[in-house]
Amino acid sequence: MTHGSSSSSSNNLNTDCSSSSEFREPPLRKRRRTFMNKYLEHNNICSSERTEQIHQALAKMIAINQMPLSFCSSSGFQQFMAIVEPNYLICKEGAIKRRLKAFKSSVEEQIKKELRNAKSVSCTSDCWSSISLESYITVTAHFIDDQWCPKSYTLTTHQLEDRHTALNLSNQLETTFSKWEIEQKVMAVVTDNAKNVLNAVNLLTNITEKNDLTCSAHTLQLAINNGLKYDKIEQLIQLSNKIVGHFKHSNVATQCLKTKQEQLGLPAECLIQSCKTRWNSVFMMLDRLYENRCPVSNVFADRTVTTAAMAQKFEVTENQWAAIETIVKLLKPLQVITTVFCGEKYCSISMVRPLLNIVIEKHLQPQINDDEIAQNFKYIVIQELKDRFKLNWNPSSVVSARQIASFLDPRYKDLEHEAADAREEIRTRVKSLLDDISEHNDDMQIQTSETKNSFGGLAFLYGDKGNCNTDDSTVQFQNYLAEPQLRFDFDALEWWKTRATKYPLMVVLAVKYLGIPATSVSSERCFSTAGNIVTAKRSCLAPETVNMLVFLYQNKQLL
């Protein structure tokens, strides 16, 4: 019995061992997989199509809102998606980055397609250094499409590893043009006034227009800044900066200013600080300060807010307020044309010389009642504008792209803003360009074959009287000269759109020259975008990632 019992116990032990090995728990990884499968079956996880839609929308949101890639794995986003779509599996950064690259490739193809159809392309370019001291160059393409709408696309914002020499910059530009297949279409590159950049443009071999094509807004601000260097003006600017700085750093003074503004029925507006690198900032500061002259003075007179010593430090006399008013009036027209030059929804290059002439003639001409500040500012700015924009014509002057564009703009075609000698030279230059186009475009036809066939009988009846050869460059040129000049507020591109068949040769020139931007602002705006992307917390972003994010944001209308 004892032996039997032990044998039975042994068998039971073997049975238990075999059963324990047979029903041993699966590995941890397999256990998790089984659990997840049961969980997903129970909770109806998102379909692959729905998940991909969310992934795509998330990638677009990151690109458009300039958000970090890590946002997709943040706890806040996970909590948000737990409410919106509880069954959504959070996408990792690598997957989001792959989709952003796919978006970039798609947008590039769309831009390349439009550039292939463009008859002529002009570019703007600028350089920038990030917070991590990495240098970048950006290039933006501008052109007029078949519907006579101005288009602009950011092509690249890539890192500059070499020194900013003219040769290196020129090579970078040529590489960009070649990548985008526009090396034979780019006729002009608009940049700021830096010597190395100007020399780089001059080294480009395929560029036809290199004369007098710097950023008009930047050039204008250089002239204005020299006018503001007059001692009495500088003192007023320094005093105004101190006053604005006081309100920026004092919450008590700021709240008191808002109270005083409400009491006087003025809008509760903050004062504006001027910045040397920001165009028109001096005008905006002085204009806002003068508008709030009374509430600012009331704050300084309130001893519960401002001490006597502080009030004396920021005291502005009546003569100084009058001088501030004078400077604001002088800067106002210059601020207006700066804003006009920076527009991208219309042809701006043709407006540069006419508007500068209007400002000089109507707003900067010396008056009998001008004080010392006005006289000095007007004299300096007029001289600066004439020198920097080459407004004075002399026998050695060369017809510039701006002058040709003004002639091709039906609002300024009579060239009233130019000297008599200059008008003749400009017309002669345009006529020469038309003759060249006529010689190299023998396949250009005004009438379609269907039209010719339909009216062939009429042409036979009219004989020579019906042979009005509008394909001739001389005929088109003379007919354009006979056109009435439009008012300044008409749309020049719309005018050309309705006359494309009447002036087929001149249309070629109009598309080329009116498509050139007056400023390089579009490229400079890219660096505001880049500054929002390459922040102190994101200073280690790879240059390729920076280029991708800037590219997608700047061209977000194509996403």
For the report, how would you describe the main beta sheet? 4 strands, mixed
* Total DSSP helices: 25
Tell me the span between the first and last alpha carbons. Answer: 87 Å
Runs with pLDDT <50, length 5+?
Answer: 1-25, 35-42, 443-455, 464-468
The string of secondary-structure elements, in order, is HHHHHEEEHEHHHHHHHHHHHHHHHHHHH
Helix content class = 55-70%
- β-strand number: 4
Mean pLDDT, as a whole number?
Answer: 85
Q: What percent strand?
A: 5-15%
Could you walk me through the main structural features you see in this protein, from its secondary elements to its overall organization?
The protein is of the alpha+beta class and 559 residues long. The chain is built from 25 helices and four strands. It has helices at residues 2-22, 28-43, 48-64, 75-84, 93-117, 166-179, 195-203, 216-227, 231-249, 251-263, 281-291, 293-301, 308-313, 318-341, 352-362, 372-388, 401-408, 420-440, 449-454, 456-462, 473-482, 492-497, 504-514, 521-533, 543-554, and strands at residues 121-129, 135-144, 150-159, 186-190. The protein has a four-stranded mixed sheet with strand order 3-2-1-4. A hairpin with a 5-residue loop joins strand 2 (135-144) and strand 3. Helix 9 crosses helix 11 (281-291) and helix 14 packs parallel to helix 16. The longest helix is centred in the first third of the chain and has 25 residues, at 93-117. The N and C termini lie far apart (87 Å). The relative contact order is 0.11. Mean pLDDT is 85; it is low at 1-25, 35-42, 443-455 and 464-468.
